[in-house]
Every structure is written in C-alpha cells, then in structure tokens.
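Hey all, quick one. A colleague (J.T.) asked me to put the adenosine-5'-triphosphate job into the tracker so the inputs and the structure tokens live in one place instead of scattered across chat threads. No bug as far as I know, just bookkeeping. Sequence used:
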Amino acid sequence: MYDINLKNVTKGFGNLQAVNDITFTIPKSSVTVLLGPSGCGKTTLMRMIAGLETPTSGSIFFDDIDVTRVPTKRRNLGMVFQYPVIYRGTSVKRNLELPLLSEKLSAGEISKRVNDVADLLGISGDLNKMVEELDNGTRQKIAVGRAIARQPQIILFDEPITNIDITAKLELKRSLKEVFSRLSQTIVYVTHDQTEAMTLADQIALMQDGVITQCAPPKEIYEKPKSQFAGWFLGNPGINFIEKEHISVAGSGINSSLFSQTIDAGSHASQVKVLGVRAEAIEVKTTQSPEARSARVVRKSLGIGGQYLLDLEYGSLKVKARVAHQLGREIGDQVWTTITSSDVIMFNEAGVAI
Ligand code: ATP
C-alpha cells in the first residue's frame, strides 16, 4: 500500500487559499480522518489527492511516485461520496460486479470478490434485491462495496454518513468501523463530525483555515490538544476554558478559583493566558473536604452514556463537569470539586498549548 506524501500543497480559488502550504504524510494501511469545521479545506485536500483538483503549487506523491498531474483513473483509488454512487434499476450483485468487469478478472474471481465484499458489509442477504428496495444506509454500503471490490491501494471517503437517514447512520458507522479494521488499504476519510472521527480514525488530522493544525490518534488529540481550537473542537462538550481574569500567576505557580492547589508552570508561567480542563477531569463530590472547592449547580443536562453534565458556578467562573447519574445533585445544590494538576492544560496568548 502507499503512503500519501503532500509537499507544500496549496490550492487557491481566486483570492481564497482553500489549502495553504500543507506538507504532511498520510501513513499507509491506516485510517486518517481529515476533520475540521465547514470551509477549512478538507474536501479540497481530498479532491487533490483524488486528482479531481490540481494544486496551485506543491506536489503529491504516492510513496515516491509524483501523481500531482496524473488523472484520477490512473491513480488506483476507490472513492465514496456523500450520496451513494450506484446504478438504479439493477440488483445489488450487479452493482458490485460492474466495477470489476474492466479489471480483466475471471468469472470465478469476480464472483468471489462480490461475495467477500457483501459478506464484509453484511449485505449478503440483499445481493439479489434491486437497489430501490433498500434504505439509503444500505445503498451507501453498496457504494462502499463498489469502491473496495477493485482492491485499490487508496480509498477516499468524503462525508459518507452525512446524508444518511438518522436510523441507518449508526449501523453504517458500525459497519465502516468493522470494514476499516479488516482492510489493509490507505484510507482517507473527510468529516466535520468529531464523534465520527473519534470512532473511525487511527489518526485525526485536524484542519483549520487551510492547514493541518495537529495530527494524532483520537485519544491523544483529545487529551493533549496542542491548541485551544483543538480543545474546543474535540469533545462533547469541548474543553472548559478558564480565561485570564480567573487566573493568577505568582512566580512559577498558577492559581484559579477552580482549584485549591497551585499548579507549577515552571519558566512558562508568565506566558500562561488560558487554562483548559475537560468536563470529566473535574471530580464532583457531595461532601466537603479540605482540598475541595465549593461550587453551585446552575444547570443539569443529560450527557452521553447515562451521565450528566452539570454547569457549575464558582463565583463568576462557570464550567461544565461530567458526573455519574448516581451523584443525584440538582439545580441550586452545592457541590465540592477537585482537579488533578496534570489534567490542566495551559495555553499562551496565541492559544497554543505550552
Ligand atoms: P465543507 O465541510 O463545508 O465541505 P470543507 O472543509 O470541505 O468544508 P472545502 O469544500 O474544501 O471545505 O472548501 C474550502 C474553501 O474553498 C471554502 O471557502 C469553499 O467555499 C472554497 N471552495 C471550494 N471549492 C471551490 C471552488 N470550486 N471554487 C471556489 N471556491 C471553492
């Protein structure tokens, strides 16, 4: 399989720099998710990897082969788009066979690949159905099957779940996770949905304003965001930010009304402008203790996995904390909280983690 090597890749549309001087390697045989808000350049970057757009400057290599100006059909790629690309008026089986007909394969090999792909996607029972009989989640599975049956070196997914009915979404995501774990191809997957990225990625390449700001496995990018943007974009809710009016610096120590202990920031202390704390890093208790800070519950909402999110108020400072259902606190109640120093992330004036 191929690494995808981007060297100073830039794409401009008139005055707009959609992709701005990206040098980056997408590692072979793994799932790299290009994640970022609408308009950050992820689709443009993928379209250049596909050969559907030509960079304004810079080069794209598959391993060490320069493909910058190689047409799409000679790049040995599979592609899956937002809307399933399938042939209506034909069966599922025929849809899976069609891309294989130009591959000079024996009838036996074609049949084997169709059956293997259908098995992998859990649609063996649908092979003889017409595509019109199926929901759009299953149709997207057929589009995935068509892309992988040819066994290309690289498979590109452009928001394949976005336009699928809510009921079929979860099943399709589960199926893609299973398929990705069994494929050895280099997979690039575009989405603006951080939950999808956290579920499917081996590594997330987070994009903002045409550049990749951080690339790391999901757990690492979540726990160690290199910027306020990464801390805000990843997670539901995003990271709590404690702004400078709630921070005091004394020598190398940082204090805040959120924690009782002083956090040592060493020689960087004077550069610290904002602190970041994840909602689950705030330990909430119903009883007082010497090291705990007092807060009031001002809002309670249902979080994921049967947990609750509490909006807590420490004077004028407000943060969100994730708590177990059993905690049983209500709006207006008092609670006591503690935080481990190592769970606090420090950011400088530019929003960069230090
Ligand atoms: P979305 O999730 O909304 O698709 P994205 O991160 O994929 O966003 P792109 O589609 O790559 O972003 O677009 C990046 C920027 O380039 C946007 O401002 C978009 O309007 C602009 N753009 C993309 N394609 C073209 C084009 N063909 N002509 C002009 N501007 C374009």
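Adding what we noticed when we looked at it: The mean pLDDT is 94. The CA atoms of residues 280 and 322 lie 5 Å apart.
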